[in-house]
Amino acid sequence: MSRVRIGILSPLPLAATLSSVAYHLLKGYLEESGAKVYVYYFEDGRLASIGRGSPQPRELDALLVSVTFELDLPRVVEALRQGGINPDASSRGPGDPVVITGGPLPTANPITSLGFSDAIVIGEAEPLLDSILDALERGSRSSRLRALADAGLLVPGHSPTPVEKVYTKNLDEAWYPTRIYIPRGVEPVWGYSYPLETSRGCGRGCRFCMEGFVFRPLRHRSFNRLRELLEEGVTVNDVNKVSFYSLSFFDSPHAERILSYAVEELGLDVSVPSLRVDTLTSRRIELIAEGGQKTLTIAPETGSCRIARAFNKEISPSRVVDVASEAVERGVRTVKLYIITPAPLEDGEAFEGTLSLIEDTARSVKRLGGVLRVSVNPFIPKPHTPLQWLGVPSERDFRERVKRLRATARRIGVEVDFYDLKLARVQAAIGRGSWGVERLVIEWGLRGVGLGALRAAANKLGFNLEEMWGPLKEDYNPPWHDLVRLPGASLDLLRREYEKFLGLARSTCSWR
């Protein structure tokens, strides 16, 4: 049994932290292994902990840090500072805890997190947890770092590169939590429910989606294992709801069966996110509605055939309208659409297709008594995707789309929200950051967590943020490919997919 004292640090508020499957998995497994585990989160600008009597992070043997989004990074830096740990990993001494970072962003581009990390998990944690605990039992800090490098983590100064992604080969054999840890009086984002991961990874290859490339290959839990976890999970946690987790729920061959079992056999309420329109049948919509879900979220991304085909997500507007209408007919109250605009190479005709998609869906949903909401995001290039060489749309193009969409929304009575273009730029600039961005992240976090702090940090260190969020040269070899090797996301493959995107986006296409 391990004697390690280890912290889990989430840069998110408490409710969001408790909604993370990774949090429950790490806490449960480490405690079952005998480690003493403390949980920290970041809310309203302050580092806080779950439970009374938690030590300061600086007093622990190690701190596990989860990073999902670029805007998490300055919060991690500030949380480390408040926890008594020098945010600059190169300045830590022999008595300092080992800071181990993991998550989608450091796996896709570890440079973003190298400034504050002693070691980075490239991929998934489960296969490494025993080795991490063994390494942390070593006597000195330097021997711990060498052991972590030997275990397969990216450890500056110790690891040969590129580091191979580590991932769970068989989900049925992997440890998964049945008891979850929710403090009294706190409700997770998805409500009081048992979180059940049905599959991991994605085989779709949508060319804009980082998660779809970073989490390859696609793997599924068997129906028997899902049923076993579900029955025990809702019982020991005394809940009557299950929240299914996956990148695309119905891509699992067992999804419909476990959904039916949860709703019709166990009588549970359900939350089913991550739904692709082209996987929804009448039977599946019926089960979702019967399970009490009142909002159906789907992401056609665009109403343009040309852009949809180039994205590798060809879903016709008529199919979107049909699915949204049937969902409302069966009892779903609200349909939410996710749209990307401006998309790369999206001209006026392509945008008109998106406007028509929204109008046609709204007309049908409202006629049936439902509500349509639309969430609009500008295109954001992400590392380790085929579109990583492209830039964020111009402010002029984005404002034009916003103006047209708002006018359309007022006319047809639809709620539309827009992601802030400034935040989109930050995501692209930092997420695709080259060498030196690790220093920028530290300086940013030390000055605050807002955009003004980032601009001040960039000015001090001589970074041109506008260049960073703009397009990259097509012959540019991103440095993150030198550091990590991810299955199904080699530089050669991504270049080929990028060329396919350009060809399809410039071609002609019409919906059948």
Q: Helical amount among residues, as a percent range? A: 40-55%
Please provide the count of β strands: 17
Strand share of the residues?
5-15%
Alpha-carbon Rg, integer:
23 Å
Q: Which of globular, elongated, flat, extended, rod-shaped describes the shape?
A: globular
Profile the largest sheet: 6 strands, mixed
Low-confidence stretches: none
Entry summary:
The protein has helices at 14-18, 21-32, 73-82, 104-108, 129-136, 141-151, 210-214, 223-236, 255-265, 282-290, 305-311, 317-329, 348-367, 395-412, 421-431, 437-447, 451-461, 465-469, 480-483, 491-505, and strands at 5-9, 36-43, 46-49, 62-66, 98-102, 119-120, 163-164, 194-197, 199-200, 219-220, 241-245, 269-271, 295-301, 334-340, 371-377, 415-418, 484-485. It has 512 residues and is α/β, with parallel strands linked by helices. The radius of gyration is 23 Å and the shape is globular.
Which features would summarize this protein structure in a list?
single chain, alpha/beta, Transcription Regulator spoIIAA, six-stranded mixed sheet, four-stranded parallel sheet, 20 helices
